[in-house]
Structure formats: structure tokens, C-alpha cells
Amino acid sequence: MTAYFPGVPDETLAAPVTLRPGAEVAGVDFRLSRKLTFRVSGQVVGPQQVQTTTVRISPRNTTLESPIFTGMMNLAPADANGNFTLDDVSPGSYRIQAQTTGVGGQRFAARMTLDVTTDDVENVTLLLRAGIRIAGSFFLEGATVDNAAETAGLDLARARARLFEDNSTTAMSQPSDANGGFELEDVFPGTYRLDVTPPAPDLYVKRILIGSEEVAPMAPSVEVTPDFDGRIDILLSPNGGRVGGTVTNRDGDAVPGAAVTLVPGRAGPDEETLPQTLVKRALTGPDGTYSLTGIAPGEYQLFAWEATQGVPYLSLEFLRGFDARAERLTIREGDDRMVALDLIPAEETQ
Q1: Contact indicator for 111, 191 with CB cutoff of 8 Å
Q2: Taking Cα atoms as reference points, which of 305, 214, 292 lies closest to residue 255?
Q3: Helices (H) and strands (E) in the chain, counts
Q4: Of these four, 27, 137, 147, 331, which has the most CB atoms within 10 Å of its CB?
Q5: d(CA 97, CA 76)
Q6: Domain annotation for the chain: domains and CATH numbers
Q7: Distance between CA atoms of residues 304 and 255, nearest Å
Q8: CA 232, CA 209: separation in Å to the nearest integer?
Q9: Which pLDDT tens digit goes with each residue over 201-255?
Q10: What is the pLDDT of residue 68?
Q11: DSSP string over 204-221
């Protein structure tokens, strides 16, 4: 089994160990215990003329790129009849998926969530489906044929739309065309979070239409069904707010190289981690000043950290511990605010 200090199986529960140059750290002990594991088995059902089908199981609280266990025990090929067996699966909540490629290179996939508790899990059926292609467009507020020359310097091909499922990137748009059109390929039925990266830092996402339905632009949810035929249209606005100011330490001195983060002031009750795209970041310059642009209207918290690495600023649990140190502000469209920040020393974040 894999264990993280101080002997926990999940990296999200691990405690950091600070090691300074030339220092020795004692007491970094691990206590390993024999852990009960189970077997997950079943069958993949789908097109007959496909290449080898791989079945993979991954914890839902981490990404596919960094599962909490290593080696080959989290994936296995299905046999000629589609049967598969995954051994050594620890109790927990998982995402299980199968992927394969059919004739002509068409991709097929199946996915489902699965809880492993006190016994082997048998007769799991994974039904392969063809991926769906979702079209969309980026639009710039105020851009018309008449003022197209004024916006020629804005390269919409640099904008990106991504679909996330259980913290793992599932689909990313290819570079959009000159008119802002893009496609998301091989999207399979499921519920996703849509993240948008504007092509310039002074733009923000103002509106999102999925089909004919307008959804909240802050981490919107997309429900993709097997017969999904909608498109995603994203309106970008150059009228976002701006926040700037100076970071000072306890002595009142300006601090260069401090990490300033602007995070949404409210989160859902079940949320534990903020999406990266909802957080604005900047480092203070030699004179201790910072500037954040392209801020969507809303309520925010503003922090200034002395440590520029190792601060889990996306963790809501971590941020709640610094509520009293946050500057709270409400941003409206076109606002230009100056906010002085007190530095949070590095020793307080370790």
C-alpha cells in the first residue's frame, strides 16, 4: 500500500514536513498496517470490432494522473469476451472507466462511479458508447463588424474551454478559429464542470449559454446525455474589475515578491476545493505593488502570502483558517479598486 506522512493513505490528508537547509528533522515516522482489499470484476459491453479495451479504476477524490496507489493494480485489460478483473482495491469511492478505439479510429468509452465497502464487487457492466462532439463559440462583448479592427489584437484562438469530472480534465477545446468557434471532442455522457480560460487576463466570462439555457458563469455544470445536441456559447467581457495596491509587513515596509490571491467569497456547502480558474493571482513587484485585472462582478476575499510555494490557496478548509486576515470586497463591472494588504508570514502557513 502507499502511505503519506503521518501514515495516511490519501495525499489530501497528509501533513507537510518542512526541511530547511542544513537542518535535520526527526519524528517523521510511518505506521503501516495490513490493509484489507477487494476484487472488482465485470464485463465491458460494446462494439465488436474494437482494439484492446482497458479498464481503469481511480479514487474520486484525486485525478487520474496521480492515483493514491501505484503500479498496475489500478488498471487491467478486458479479455476477448469483455471480462475484466481488478485486484487489490481498497475500500473507498471510485470512478471506473473503460476505453477503446474502434475501426477508423473512433473512440468509445464507458464510466460509472462505484463504492467498494466490505466485500468484492462483481457483475459490473460497462456499456461502451461513442464520444460526442460538442461545438461552441467565444464572443467578445461590444465587438462588431464595424470595430473588428480595434479588436484585431485579441487572439480568440488562445481561449480554452475545458470539461472536468471529479477533478480530472476530461476534454479540452482545440484552438478556436478566427471567429471564436471551437469543438470539444470525444465527450462521453456524464456531469461536468466547465472551466473557461479567456485569451487575455483583462477579460472575464460574463455569460454562458448551453443550448438555449443560460447558466451561472462561475464553475457552471454541464449535463451531457447520450442524445446531447446542444452547443456552448461563451460571452467574454473587457469590462471586468481591477484591484491593485501595496503589500506591507508588520513593520510597515513594502514587500516585493509576495503572492496575492483573490478568491470567491462564497462557496457551496459541499465544496472543498476551488477551481483554479476562479482564483486570480499576482506577485508584488520590487516596490511591493500588485495588480489584478479581468475580475468578474461578485464578492471576494483577498490575501497576501509571504510564501510563494506550498500555500494550499485552493483549499477552502485552509482558507477558513485565515478568514480574519482576509480583505473582503465586492467588485462591480468596471470597478477600479485600491486595497492595501497586510502580509501573512510564511511561518503561519506551515
Answers
A1: no
A2: 305
A3: 1, 25
A4: 331
A5: 11
A6: 34-130 (2.60.40.10), 132-237 (2.60.40.10), 241-349 (2.60.40.10)
A7: 10
A8: 6
A9: 889 999 999 988 898 887 788 888 878 888 999 999 999 999 999 999 999 999 9
A10: 34
A11: EEEEEEETTEEE-SSS-E
Extended beta strands in 82-220, E state: 83-89, 92-101, 107-116, 121-127, 129-130, 132-140, 160-165, 168-172, 181-187, 190-197, 204-210, 213-215
Taken in order 37, 42, 47, 48, the sign of the CA dihedral is positive
Q: List, in sequence order, every residue forming a beta bridge with 100; answer none if it has no partner.
A: 108
In three-state form (DSSP H/G/I as H, E/B as E, the rest C), the secondary structure along 146-169 is CCHHHHCCCCHHHCEEEEEECCEE
pTM for this prediction: 0.69
**Rounded to an integer, what distance in angstroms lies between the CA atom of residue 343 and that of residue 249?**
5
Strand bridging mode 241-248 / 341-342:
parallel
Burial of 210 (0-12, 13-18, 19+ CB in 10 A): buried
CB 165 within 8 A of CB 190: yes
For 292-350, what is each residue's pLDDT tens digit?
A: 999 999 999 999 999 888 889 888 889 989 999 999 999 999 999 999 999 999 999 87
Grid cell digits, residue 66: 496521480
Nine cell digits for residue 285: 513587484
Residue 318 backbone phi and psi in degrees, to 5: -65, -45
Q: CB within 8 A of 268, min separation 6: which ones?
A: none
